[in-house]
Amino acid sequence: MRKSRFRKAMLAVGVAGLLLVFYGLMGRWLAPAGIRQRLTADRSCRLCDLAGENLNGLNLAGADFTGAIFYGTDLTGAVLKNAILVNADLRCACIEKAILDGATWVNGQICGSPSIGRCLTPDTAKLLESGHCPGCNLRAATLDSSPLAGAFLKSADLTRAALSRTNLNQANLTRANLTRSVARQAGFQKSLLLEADLTEADLTGADLSEAYLRKSLMTGAVLEHACLEKADLRQAVFHGARLNGARLSGADLAEANLKMADLTGADLTGANLEKANLIGARLKGARFDEAYLTGAVWTNGKKCGHGSIGRCEQ
Question: What contacts 24+ positions apart, CB below 8 Å, involve 94-103?
Answer without folding.
Answer: 94/56, 95/142
